[in-house]
Design a protein that fits this description.
The complex is a heterodimer of chains A (358) and B (441). Chain A is an all-alpha fold and 358 residues long. Chain A has a domain of 229 residues. Chain A contains 14 helices and four strands. The model of chain A has no long low-confidence stretch (mean pLDDT 88). Chain B is of the alpha/beta class and 441 residues long. Chain B is 44% helix and 13% strand. Chain B is built from 15 helices and 13 strands. Chain B has a seven-stranded mixed β-sheet, with helices on both faces. In chain B, a hairpin with a 4-residue loop joins strand 12 and strand 13. In chain B, 57% of the residues are buried. The N terminus of chain B is likely disordered. The chains are: A mainly alpha (358), B alpha/beta (441).
Chain lengths: 358, 441
C-alpha cells in the first residue's frame, strides 16, 4: 500500500535516470542517512560505535571496492587485504614523512598507492581469467604482506613491525573520541559509496559489465580491454586502500602487516558473496552480516547457556560459533545464491504489488 | 512463540538477578582464546587463571570480602576480535573492567592507547611491548615479571655459561628463528646489540605465521651451521621446528626456546625430536606446589574446574595462568590496603599494580615458593623481576637446569628508556615524574 509508485510520472531524462527513481526509496535513503548522521551518534554507546559500527562501515567500503572488481568487472580477486595494507601503510607513511600533511589527503594518497599496486597486479588479468587470475591476486596478497614485513622502512624501523597511527586532526579538530571517528568514517564511506553507485551506472560501469558478461563481445563493440580492466583494478584497490587507512586510523589504532592476511581477504570475499555480487547495497548488507553475526552469536550463546543450565566446555563454545557461521553461509548459498541484495529486491517487488498481487 | 517469550523473560530476569547482587564484586575480563592455532597456550593459561580466581573466591570468599567475577570472550589471538572483546567488556561489573590481560602482543599494542584513555591497566605478563617497562611513559601498561629483552640477555648469559665464560662468545654464530609477527621481531634489536658487544654473529630467519612448514628455514640453518639456535616460536611453530631440527640432525640441546616455546604442548607433539631441548621460563612445571593443591581441593573436587583434561594441571601453561592469578590478586590486595576493602576501579587497580611487591616470604604464604620469582614493581620499573630459569625437556617433563638467571640490566634499561622516549616524542606525551608519585601505603 505504502510502497506504490502509481502517480509518480517521469517527465525528463534526469528524473528517469536518477539513482532512486521511486519517491519512497528516496525518502527511505534520506531517512537512513539522517539516522546514521544524527540519531546514531546520539544514541549509540562507545561499544556500539567503536566495536560494531566503525568496523561495519570500513568493511562495507572494502566490500564495495571488491564488488567493483569482482561483481561488476568480473575479475576474481583474493588480494583485498593486501590492498588495504598498502592503503594503511601508505597513509601512515605520508603523514609521518611529509610535515603538515592533511589527514584526508593522506588517506587519498594511501588509496592511490593501493591503486598503483592494484594496477601492477591487475596486469595478468589481461591474459588469464577466473581461478587462474585468483591465484595471481593471491600472489599480491602474499607479496605485499611479505614486503611490508621485510623492508623495515615501511614501518619506520619499528622493532616489532607494528605501526601506531598518529593523532588525527582535520582543520584543528581532533578526532580522538569514538563519536568523532565514527563521523569521519561515515562521511568518507558515504561519499565513496555514492561515487561508486554513480560510477557503475555510468559508461565506465557499463563497460565493466560488458567485459564481465563476455569480454570478446565487449572488445568487438569497441571497449578497450586494457584500459577498462586496469581501471577496475585501480578503482577497486583505491577503495580497499582507503578502507585500509580507515581500518588503521579509525578502528584499531595500531596495525601490523600480519593483520592483513589471507583470512581478511576471504572475509571480504564472503561479504560480497553473501551480500550480493554486483550490488553496492549488497556490499553493505554482507559487511553487516559478517561483522555482526559472530558478535551476535557470541553474545547470545552465553546467556542461553546459563538459561538452559548447561555448562559447555569453552573450546566447544568457541567452535560452535564457527560451526553456526559456516552453516549459515552454506544455507544462504543454497537458498539465495545471489545474496541478501537479491532478497531485498524480491521483497521490494512483492511490496509494490501488496496487498493485491495479480 | 510462547517458549520464545518465556525465554526472553528468563533472559531479562537473569539480567536483573545478575545486577542485583553485583555490588561487592570486582570484574576481570578474561579475553583469551580457546580455538585456533594458539589455543593450547590460551586455554592453558586462562584455565589456570580462572581456576585460581575461583579458588580465591571459594577458599577466602574473594579478596577482602570482594568477590572476583569474570567473563570469557574469545579473541582467537586476532587483533580486531581482541579490540571488540575489550570494548564489550570494559563497562561490565560495578567498577567496569579493572585490569586486562590481552595474552597477545598484537592485541596489547592495539589496546595501549585505548586502555590509557579508559584508565584500565594492562598486564602483559611476559609478552607485549618491551619498552613499556618504562612506567614514566606507559603508566597503564605493565609487562610484569620479565620482558623479551631481559629474557634475551639471560639467554645469552646462559649460552655464555655453557660455553665457559662470556668471552668465549666471540666468534660464535647464533641463529634466531622467529615467528614473523610483532611478537617475533621484538628481540631483533637487542640481539644485534649483544652481538656487537660480545662479538658473536647473529642471523635472523623469519618463519611466516602459523609456521607449520619450516623446511627451507632449517635448510638455511644447516648451511649456516650455527653454534646455537634461539627459537622464538609460538603455537604450532614450535613442534614443527623441533621436528625439522631432528630431520637435519641439529642437536636439540643447542636450541634455546623463549617461554612461549617451552611448554608440554610444544614438545609432546614433537615426540622424541624434542628430547634435550632447552627453553627459558618464568614459572616452573609441577603440581606439587601447595597453591596447585589448593586449586584441586577447592575447585576440582567440586567439579568447577576449567580444565577438561585434568592432566594439564601443573603443566607450564596452566601454572603460568596461576602466576597471572597470583599477580592480579596480590595487586588487588595492595590496592585495597590504600583504597579500602571495596571493588577497586581501574585507576585504583593501576596504583595497586604499580606498588606491587611479592617477597619470598609472601610467596611462601601463597604456597608458591620456587613457583615464580619475587616481584617488586615501581613507577620507574614496570617489569619488576626480570630473571628466568632454564628448563630442559627430558622426554616426559620439564626439569629446571639452572637457578634464576638475572638479565643484563645495564644493557637493557638504556635501550628501553631510549625506545620509550622515542615513543613519547612520537605521541607527544610528557613522561611522568616518578618522584612525585604517591608512595606505597
Amino acid at each position: 500500500m505504502l510502497y506504490r509508485e502509481a502517480g509518480q510520472f517521469k517527465a525528463s531524462y534526469a528524473t528517469d535516470q536518477q539513482i532512486f527513481p521511486i519517491r519512497q526509496d528516496r525518502i527511505a535513503v534520506a531517512a537512513l542517512t539522517a539516522l546514521a548522521f544524527v540519531i546514531v551518534p546520539l544514541v549509540a554507546d562507545q561499544y556500539w560505535l567503536s566495536a560494531i559500527l566503525i568496523p561495519f562501515l570500513i568493511f562495507a567500503l572494502a566490500a564495495v571496492g571488491l564488488n567493483i572488481l569482482t561483481g561488476y568487472a568480473g575479475q576474481l580477486s583474493l588480494g583485498t587485504a593486501a590492498f588495504m595494507a598498502v592503503g594503511a601503510f601508505g597513509a601512515w607513511n605520508f603523514v609521518l614523512r611529509v610535515p603538515g600533511m592533511p589527514l584526508l589527503v593522506a588517506f587519498a594518497l594511501g588509496g592511490i598507492c593501493a591503486a598503483l599496486v592494484g594496477i601492477v597486479f591487475g596486469l595478468p588479468s589481461l591474459r588469464i581469467k577466473g581461478f587462474y587470475l585468483a591465484v595471481a591476486t593471491l600472489a599480491a596478497q602474499f607479496f605485499v604482506v611479505w614486503a611490508l614485513t621485510k623492508f623495515n622502512w615501511f614501518s619506520n624501523y619499528s622493532t616489532s613491525g607494528v605501526i601506531t597511527t598518529q593523532r588525527m586532526e582535520i582543520l584543528g579538530f581532533a578526532f580522538d573520541t569514538p563519536r568523532a571517528k565514527y563521523f569521519l568514517t561515515l562521511t568518507v564511506v558515504v561519499v565513496l559509496a555514492l561515487a561508486a553507485k554513480n560510477m557503475v551506472r555510468s559508461s565506465i560501469g557499463r563497460a565493466w559489465m560488458a567485459i564481465r558478461d563476455m569480454d570478446v563481445a565487449a572488445e568487438v563493440i569497441g571497449i578497450p580491454m586494457l584500459r577498462t580492466k586496469l581501471l577496475a583494478f585501480a578503482i577497486s584497490s583505491f577503495y580497499a586502500g582507503v578502507a585500509g587507512a580507515l581500518y588503521a586510523y579509525c578502528y584499531l589504532g595500531t596495525v601490523e602487516p600480519e593483520g592483513f592476511n589471507l583470512d581478511l581477504s576471504f572475509k571480504i570475499l564472503f561479504m560480497i558473496i553473501l551480500g550480493g555480487v554486483g550490488s553496492i547495497l549488497g556490499s553493505f548488507l554482507g559487511a553487516g552480516f559478517i561483522v555482526l553475526l559472530p558478535i551476535f552469536l557470541n553474545t547470545v550463546a552465553r546467556p542461553l547457556e546459563n538459561l538452559l543450565g548447561l555448562s559447555l566446555p569453552p573450546g566447544l563454545m568457541s567452535n560452535l560459533e564457527l560451526i553456526v557461521f559456516g552453516g549459515l553461509i552454506i544455507f544462504f548459498l543454497i537458498v539465495e545464491p545471489h545474496g541478501l541484495a537479491r532478497l531485498w529486491q524480491i521483497t521490494k517487488e512483492k511490496l509494490r504489488l501488496w496487498p493485491f498481487p495479480h | 512463540m510462547k517458549s520464545v517469550k518465556s525465554a526472553l523473560l528468563g533472559l531479562a530476569l537473569l539480567g536483573v538477578a545478575a545486577s542485583a547482587h553485583a555490588q561487592n564484586e570486582q570484574f576481570i575480563p578474561m579475553n583469551g582464546y580457546w580455538v585456533g592455532p594458539y589455543a593450547a597456550g590460551g586455554s592453558g593459561i586462562f584455565g589456570g587463571f580462572i581456576d585460581y580466581i575461583n579458588m580465591i573466591n571459594a577458599r577466602d570468599g574473594g579478596v577482602g570480602g570482594v568477590k572476583l567475577t569474570y567473563e570469557k570472550c574469545e579473541t582467537e589471538y586476532n587483533n580486531a576480535r581482541g579490540v571488540e572483546c575489550y570494548e564489550r567488556e570494559k563497562k561490565k561489573g560495578p567498577t567496569g573492567a579493572t585490569v586486562i590481560h590481552p595474552l597477545s602482543t598484537g592485541i596489547t599494542y592495539s589496546l595501549i592507547d585505548k586502555a590509557a584513555a579508559d584508565k584500565i591497566p594492562i598486564i602483559s605478563l611476559g609478552y607485549g611491548r618491551t619498552d613499556a617497562s618504562d612506567g614514566r611513559v606507559f603508566p597503564y601498561v605493565f609487562p610484569l615479571i620479565t620482558n623479551y629483552w631481559s629474557q634475551n640477555t639471560a639467554k645469552i648469559k646462559f649460552i655464555g655459561m655453557r660455553e665457559g665464560g662470556m668471552d668465549k662468545l666471540k666468534g660464535l654464530t647464533i641463529v634466531n628463528i622467529y615467528h614473523d609477527s610483532a611478537y617475533g621481531k621484538e628481540t631483533i634489536p637487542i640481539l644485534d646489540a649483544q652481538a656487537k658487544k660480545y662479538g658473536f654473529t647473529v642471523k635472523h630467519i623469519p618463519v611466516p605465521h602459523p609456521g607449520n612448514e619450516q623446511g627451507s628455514q632449517w635448510l638455511q640453518v644447516r648451511q649456516i651451521k650455527p653454534d646455537w639456535v634461539i627459537l622464538r616460536g609460538w603455537g604450532v611453530m614450535n613442534p614443527t621446528a623441533l621436528k625439522a631440527a631432528a630431520k637435519i640432525g641439529y642437536p636439540r640441546d643447542r636450541i634455546i626456546g623463549v617461554w612461549w616455546s617451552g611448554a608440554e604442548e610444544d614438545t609432546i607433539p614433537a615426540g622424541d625430536a624434542a628430547k634435550g631441548y632447552i627453553a627459558a621460563g618464568f614459572n616452573v612445571a609441577g603440581a606439587n606446589f601447595p597453591v596447585i593443591q589448593d586449586i584441586k581441593k577447592y575447585v576440582y573436587t567440586k567439579f568447577k574446574g576449567e580444565m577438561e583434561d585434568q592432566t594439564r594441571i601443573g603443566s607450564i601453561y596452566y601454572n603460568r595462568g596461576v602466576v597471572h592469578g597470583i599477580v592480579t590478586v596480590e595487586a588487588i590486595r595492595k590496592g585495597q590496603e590504600k583504597f579500602g576493602k571495596k571493588p577497586l576501579t581501574g585507576e585504583q587497580m593501576r596504583w595497586g599494580i604499580e606498588n606491587l611487591q611479592i617477597s619470598e616470604a609472601r610467596l611462601k604464604e601463597l604456597g608458591a615458593t620456587g613457583f615464580m620469582q619475587p616481584l617488586k614493581v615501581s613507577c620507574m620499573d614496570h617489569e619488576g623481576g626480570g630473571a628466568v630459569k632454564f628448563l630442559q625437556w627430558d622426554g616426559n617433563k620439564w626439569n629446571a637446569i639452572t637457578d634464576w638467571i638475572q638479565p643484563d640490566r645495564e644493557l637493557v634499561r638504556p635501550m628501553i628508556e631510549q625506545s620509550a622516549a622515542a615513543y613519547a616524542k612520537e605521541k607527544n606525551l610528557t613522561p611522568r615524574d616518578c618522584t612525585k608519585e604517591a608512595p606505597p601505603a
